[in-house]
Amino acid sequence: MPSQIQNGRNIAVIIAVVLLLIGLGTSASAQTVIAVPFDTATFQWTVPAPDATHSAATSHLLTCGTASLSVAMPSNTALVKDVVVGPGTYTCTVKAVNAFGSTAEVAFPQFQAGYLPLAPTNTQIVVP
Amino acid sequence: MRLSLGLVLLTLMGGLNASAHAQVLVSHLDAKFRWDVPAFTPENAPDAHVLTCGGSVVTVPMPATSIAVKDVVAAPGTYQCDLYAQNSAGRQAAPNVPFPSFQSGYVPGAPFMVQVLPDTPTGGGTVAPTRTGSVSSFTNANNSGSTSITIPADATMLIVGVTGYYPTTNYFSGGSMTIGGNAMTAVAADGDTSAFMGALFYVFNPPTGSQTLAWDWVGTSPPVDGGLFAWGAYKDLDTSGIRSSSGTQQAGNPHTTGTLTAQSGDLIVAFAEQFTVSDDTFTWTSATRISEFTAFDRGDASWAEASPTGNQTVSASSSSSSDGGIVAIVLKPAAGGSASLVVPRNPMAALLVR
């Protein structure tokens, strides 16, 4: 094999590896998880107005894995802690429901719910 | 020759709600009629099945054994339908086979702008403005007058559109309109006397129930053409004011608003009007037609709504392009309530009738 061709192949392999590493880095950053306080974090969504081929929703169904919560209209918020039992990383969805059926599920951004730290105690100024 | 039908189902892609004694509820756009065809021989093979829902009769050629509900009945409603098999020798000897009685309707629109917030938003989140009740219309070709309308109890906004023509600038919008004695704000599309005219009037927190809607146009002369009114009531909106408005006039199609300042969660309400010598149909772009009115005295109009995701225009074109205009206002959402826990419904997989 001529050395020029061999060199060209090596360069191509190096470029491919670099592109792969860049791709992996991009993928990792795209999966950034939102961190929220478990006790106060809230799901929120906007309800579209009924139109010629969509009627009003009677409720919205939140689902996080096997956990779910039905939220009656007109409310469009729900506490995270009312849906999932404890801190963790969750992928959740919401869909609109009425007597005639429901919509496809719409995904919330993936998030991690955790407890806020305890406030420090025994604060003092120490003179050496 | 003997033809017969086996299992008859009303089925649905995505779910069907019913109970033992309740009406079957199905999605109008997704539900399908479906049936089984018993084993047959060349001598008694069916050619087609005929499905009847009131005055609607649809023939389904073999080998198909299903048809979408929306292809049989045009609009949502409560229906009792039946089916029979036929071939060149005639129709089945047995009585028609009934489907379960059902009510079809539209599923809701999907939620959007879904997010996870670190804290509960003050006063809850936003609920898009919604029309309460249907859009109604009436006609009156006088310079001033009044009529009684019934505003739904939950309405927090009344919007009235009017169209016609008189060769005076701002003939309609320069006049006045009141509901129960409360003044309404005008959005003009009647500044150009070379085109058919229109205007939209609105007021927040109107008195509800039976109320007197009164108007008094500029001067004392009645409109030369038109005098077509339409009105709708809305709720779940910010009553502190509208986000934006636009009123324009054109010599012909399309009748397009200026760019409306809007954002997700808002609701755009638009009223298009035009000179005509027939009863026109309006085709809307970037909005959904809610009502089409019967032409009156060479004026015609249509009402539409849109759920924007940002700034946008709305346009309408009439089946007979002529001079006219369009008026639109953008309603802002109101704060929503708090979350509540309710028992999820149990969908029923299917309902079979033999």
SSE arrangement:
The complex is a heterodimer of chains A (128) and B (354).
Chain A: H1 3-30, E1 34-37, E2 42-46, E3 59-64, E4 67-72, E5 77-79, E6 88-90, E7 92-98, E8 101-102, E9 106-107, E10 111-114
Chain B: E1 8-12, E2 24-27, E3 31-35, E4 48-53, E5 56-61, E6 66-68, E7 77-79, E8 81-87, E9 90-91, E10 97-98, E11 102-105, E12 112-117, E13 126-127, E14 130-139, E15 144-151, E16 157-165, E17 176-179, E18 182-183, E19 185-189, E20 197-204, E21 209-216, E22 225-235, E23 244-250, E24 255-256, E25 267-275, E26 282-285, E27 288-292, E28 299-306, E29 315-318, E30 324-331, E31 334-335, E32 351-353
Parallel strand pairs in B: 2-11
Antiparallel strand pairs in B: 1-3, 1-32, 3-6, 4-5, 4-8, 7-11, 8-9, 8-10, 13-31, 14-22, 15-21, 16-20, 16-22, 17-18, 17-21, 19-20, 23-30, 24-29, 25-28, 25-30, 26-29, 27-28
**Which structural class is indicated by helix and strand composition of chain B?**
mainly beta
**Oligomeric nature of the chains:** heterodimer
Count of DSSP-assigned helices of chain B: 0
Per DSSP, the total helix count of chain A is: 1
Q: Percent of residues of chain A in helical segments? A: 10-25%
Q: What overall geometry of chain B do the principal axes of the alpha carbons give?
A: elongated
How many beta strands in the DSSP annotation of chain B? 32
Mean pLDDT of chain B comes to: 86
Strand proportion of chain A: 25-35%
Report low-confidence residues of chain A grouped into runs of 5 or more.
13-30
Report how far the terminal alpha carbons of chain A are from each other: 76 Å
Helix proportion range of chain B: under 10%
Largest sheet of chain B: 5 strands, antiparallel
Give the C-alpha Rg of chain A: 25 Å
| Secondary structural class of chain A | alpha+beta
Q: In what range is the share of β-strand residues of chain B? A: over 45%
Distance between the termini of chain B: 22 Å
